[in-house]
Amino acid sequence: MSETTGKKTGELLLKVRGLSKNFGGVRAVIGVDFDLHQGELLGLIGPNGSGKTTLVNLITGFVKPTDGRVEYRGKNITGLMPYKIARLGIARTFQMAKPFADLPAYKNIVIPLYSPRVRGLSGGRYGDRDSVAKDLLEDVGFERDSSVTFKAAGSLPHGYLKRLELAKCLALRADLIILDELFSGLSIAELASIVPIIEKMMMEGKTIIMIEHRLRELFRIADRVIVLNFGQIIANGKPTEVMESDEVKHAYLGTED
Amino acid sequence: MALHGGNVKQKRRERIDRGIKVRSDDIFALTSYREFLYVSVPPVAPVILLLALPLILPLYWQKVLITTAVFAILALSWDFLVTVGMVSLGQALFFGIGAYLAGYFDLRFAMPIWTTLPLAALVGGLLSALLLLPVLRLRGVYFSMVTLVLPLMFERTIEATGWLGGTEGLTGLKSFPNIWIESYLIIIALLLVFFGFRRLVTTDYGLVLKAIKNNDRAVMSGGINIYWMKAQAVFITGAIGAFCGAFMTHVYMFVGMPVFALDYSILPLASAVVGGMGSFAGSLLGAFILVPLSEALRGIGGLRTVIYALSLVIFIVAIPEGIFHYVQRKYQQFERWAAVEN
After folding, report:
1. Interval B17-72: pLDDT, tens
2. A132 touches chain B (CB under 8 A)
3. Which one of A6, B72, B111, B116 is CB 3.0 to 4.6 Å from B287, fit for a cystine?
4. Which residues have CB under 8 Å from A21's CB, separation 6+?
C-alpha cells in the first residue's frame, strides 16, 4: 500500500487501452484509450448514455470488459473483482448515493474501515473505528458530535449523503478516487462547501476522476477533461480547449442541419 | 367531510415514550427500584423462566420444551441469515446434515456424544458453506429457491441410493444420560446462540454483514469480499443448524429421512415472522408460541393443520410487525389521540 504523501510525482497511475463493452447488441464503450497521472483531476463528461458510468464500472470491476485492458500502477487489473480493485486503492462513489440506510451516519464509514486495506490502521478494538469514522466525517464537513453524525444515514439530507460518500472514499485511504456525479442535485451553497473538500484532497496528492454534468463547476477545478459520445472519446484535453472542439459542440448542442 | 377541515377536527394517533422509559434511559435507573426493575426485568425474566421451565413442566411438556428450544435456535439462525440479506427456505438442510453426520460418526467411529455434537456442528457448517458457495452470488429469490430444493434433493438421494440406512435410517444411536442433561444442554445452547447473535450484530463484523443486505455494491467498493463474508455467515448458520440436528439425533437415538422435511425449514421462518424479524428476541418468542401451540392442537385431530394455519394468518395480519416489536412498543410508549394541526 503506497500512500501518496501530498506531492505530485506525475507517475502514470492508470492506463486504459482499447477498453470496450457490449451489452448484447449495444456497444456502450468502444475502444477507449487514456492515461491518468498521479495528482491529476480528470473530468469525464458527455451526454446521457454516452458510456461514462459504464467506463467507471469497467475500471472498478463492477462490469467485465468485452475487450481491452486496464492497468493501475503498471499492474493489470482488467476484470478483477471490485473488492480487489478497491483494496489496491481505487475508491468510487455511485451515481445514486445509496447509504447503508439503517446504520447511523458514522457507522457507514466503519464499513470501509473494516476492509483489509485499512483494518490495521484504524485499530482493531471495539469502538476504535467509531472514533476514526467520526474524524473522517468531520473532514468532509459533518459538525463534530452534531446530531447528523448519529442520524440514520437513510434520513440524511442530500448534501450530507454526498459528503458521506466522500468520507467513505477517504476511509479507504484511496489514491485514485472516482466520483460519479457528485455535484448533481446540490445547491450553490452546498457546492461552495463541498468543492474545498475536493481541493483539499488534491492538495494531499489524491488523483480524482469526476463524472459531471455541471460543467461550469467542474471546469474550475479540472486539469483535464475527456468527452465521451456514443461510447467513444471525442475529445481529451484542457477544459478550455475541449469546449472549442466542433465535435464536442455538436455532441452537446446538436447542429442545425 | 373531515378531509377538508370543516367542523370535524382531524385526529391522529400519537406515540409517546412512557415517562418511565425516558427516566430509565438515564442514570435514574440505578437510583429507583421501579426504574431499575423496568430496565432489568425484560432481559432477565425470560432467562430465569427458561432455566426454571424444566423443573416445573411435566415430562411430556418437558419434551415439547426441548423441541421448542431446537426450533427457536433454528429460527434465530434463520433471522441471522436474513440480517445478511439471505432468505433461506431450507434450514432443514443444515439440520439434516448435522443429524446424519452425528448418526454416521456415532455408528462408524463409535464416537461419544460429546465428540459427535461439536464435530457434527463444525463439519456440518463447513459442508453447508461449501454446498451454498456457488449460489452466494445469487440475490433474493434465487438464493431462496436453491436452499428450498437442496434438502429435498438430499432426501431423495438417500431414498434412491440406500446410503446412510436409506429409508430405514440409522438406529441404535447413543442417547443422553437423562432428560435433565438434554433439557439444560439445549437451553444453554439456546441462550448462548441468542446472546451471541445479539452481541455479534453490534460488532464491526456484524455491521459489515448488515451493510451487505443494505447495499452490497457499496460494501464491495469498500474493499470487502462480500462472498467470503456471506460464506462465513452461512457457516455460522450451518454449524448452529447442524448442532440442532445432531442433538435431536441423540434425543431420538435415530436419524432418518424426515430430518430433511419441510417442517424444519418452514417453522423457523414462521416463528421469526410471527415473533418479529431482526431482533432475535422476536424469533425466540415466535418459536415459543408456535411450537407449543402446534403441540396443544394435537388433541383435536384432523383440523389441526387448518387451525394452525389460520392462527398463523391471524398473527401475521393482526400484528404484521411481529409480536415482539408490538409488545416492546407498548412497553416503551403509549398512544393517544392528538388533533392534527393544519
Report:
1. 888 888 777 666 677 888 888 888 998 999 999 999 999 999 999 999 999 999 99
2. no
3. B72
4. A27, A28, A29, A51, A54, A58, A63, A65, A66, A231
Instruction: Check if CATH label 1.25.40.10 holds for domain A10-89+178-185+221-251.
Output: no
Does residue A94 belong to the interface with chain B, where contact is any CB pair within 8 Å?
Answer: yes
Average pLDDT value for residue range B210-239:
95
Q: How far apart are the first and last CA of chain A?
A: 54
Question: Which residue in B has a C-alpha nearest to residue A63's C-alpha?
Answer: B217
Mean per-residue pLDDT over chain A, rounded: 90
pTM: 0.91
CB B44 within 8 A of CB B259: no
CB neighbours of residue B238 within 10 Å: 32
Other beta carbons less than 10 A from residue B305's beta carbon? 10
Q: Note which residues in 152-191 of chain A have CB less than 8 A from chain B.
A: 168, 171-172
pLDDT band at residue A251 using 50, 70 and 90 as cut-offs: confident
pLDDT at A123: 64
Does B221 sit within 8 Å of A91, measured CB to CB?
Answer: yes
Alpha carbons B34 and A118: distance in angstroms, whole number:
47
- Separation CA B328–CA B275 (nearest Å): 11
CA distance B219 to chain A (A): 7
**3 state SS for B126-182:** HHHHHHHHHHCCCCCHHHHHHHHHHHHHHHHHHHHHCHHHHHHCEECCCCCCCHHHH
pLDDT at B25: 76
Task: Tell me if A87 and B223 make a contact (CB, 8 A cut-off).
Answer: yes
pLDDT in tens, A16-75: 999 999 999 899 999 999 999 999 999 999 999 999 999 999 999 999 999 999 999 999
Report domain extents, chain A. Answer: 10-89+178-185+221-251
Integer Rg of chain B from CA: 23
Domains of chain B (ranges; CATH) run: 19-29+47-339 (1.10.3470)
